[in-house]
Amino acid sequence: MGFIKRQLLKIIQWKDATQHIIVHRYEMTDRDEIMNGCQLVVQESQVAILAREGQFADVFGPGTHRLETKNLPILSKLAGWKYGFESPFKADVYYINTKQFINQTWGTSNPVMMRDADFGMIRVRAYGKYSFQVDDAPTLIRELVGTNGEYTVDNFRDHAKTMFVTSFSDALAESKISALDMAMKYEELSEHLKNVLDGRFKEMGLKVTQAYVENVSLPEEVEKAIDKRTSLGVLSDKMGTYVAMETVGAMRDAANNPNGNSFAGAGVGIGAGVTMGHQMVSNLNNIQDTPRDQPKPAAGGTCPKCGSSVPAGSKFCPECGEKMPTAKFCPECGTKLDGAAKFCPECGTKLN
Q1: Which one of 5, 86, 100, 283 has the fewest beta carbons within 10 angstroms of its own beta carbon?
Q2: CB 318 within 8 A of CB 310
């Protein structure tokens, strides 16, 4: 009367119709037992693990496997089958999806602190996408799944939220990318993020295949400061072009002027354009005023006795009173002569 008929399993297989299950434990009733020669079917991108009394035993990859003693070395040892098993036995069968789970989103729900050389300590937010897959099935079940009958992508996403916040913070520190360059170096920052995540995922039996940073949001005041610096930089770089354009424009307007002062108008226009251009460049780059031109010494001569400068037209040196030599000229050709010359070096005329 109390006898319960056993149900012997001849084929064990599982197909994932949801595309989001990572680990699934094959459903067995209290009457189900695995018989000798049972076929274990493992689909592509799957791994199957047999467990007995809470201990993981043999792992099977894709294909159809006939469960016999030779295919169950670990389980045979756990069950004490010295000469092979003949009678049915109970065991748990776990199916693990080893495909990539792509386009998973991540984001920093709370701001992350960042130390920047230009703006000091600032708070940033970020978001992006990542992909992962199972790398070590037994480790995954031990660390995350446990005795749960099913483990999904949604279960892992909840677990990963906190991990991504700390990983992104570490990636920011390792990359040493400034806030001014952040928008241009998302790819470099993504590589640092992937490197940080690799070690943490490996501890759970997983592997990061891709990790992307799609956006980093800076505080509003920092973004305004960056926009202002960018505008000033562009204006300064283009100032030379601006001056040239102003000059050409002034010359064109002067050429089209119907009155007779075309060249005078051009001169005024060019001067105004150049002056404005140089003034703007000076203000943008904080260039101090250039030194005033030093006055040029008055034309004159040098005293042959003391070497002092003598103003033009002076007959005596103002320092020592020496009489200054008077210039002589050839009476025939007008060439300037040395005071001691007896003949003109140009025409040969004899001098008195």
Answers
A1: 5
A2: yes
